[in-house]
Amino acid sequence: MISAKDRATIEKQMKREESKIVNIVLKDDQQIAGEIDQATSDGIYLVDGRHYAYQDIQEINGIY
Predict the structure, then answer these.
(1) Among candidates 61, 53, 64, 63, which has minimal Cα distance to 33?
(2) SS3 57
(3) 16-30 burial string, b = 16+ CB within 10 Å, else e?
(4) 23 close to 10: Cβ distance less than 8 angstroms
(5) pLDDT tens figures, 29-63
(6) pTM of the model
(7) Order of strands across the sheet that contains 51-52
(8) What's the distance, CA 35 to chain centroid?
(9) Which end of the chain is less packed: N or C, by CB atoms within 10 Å?
């Protein structure tokens, strides 16, 4: 599971004016790429409607 500190780092990165494209590796080693719509306490929501809970995420953009 991603730590609260890493989650804050990711949220900070999202607020930049640059691209919000992320690479996500799930606990089952499935790799996902997409544009983040929002990050909430429930997890990461992508623009295309997909949702990933933090407990299912192993890595986001190389952050464990």
Answers:
(1) 61
(2) strand
(3) eeeebebebbeeeee
(4) no
(5) 999 999 999 989 899 999 999 999 999 999 998 88
(6) 0.69
(7) 51-52, 43-46, 31-40, 21-26, 57-60
(8) 9
(9) C
Residue 17 DSSP class: S
Would you say 4 and 11 are in contact if contact means Cβ atoms under 8 Å apart?
no
What is the b/e burial string over 33-54, where b = at least 16 CB atoms within 10 angstroms of the residue's CB? Answer: ebebbebeeebbbbeeeeebeb
CA gap 47, 36 in Å, rounded? 6
Type of residue numbered 20: K
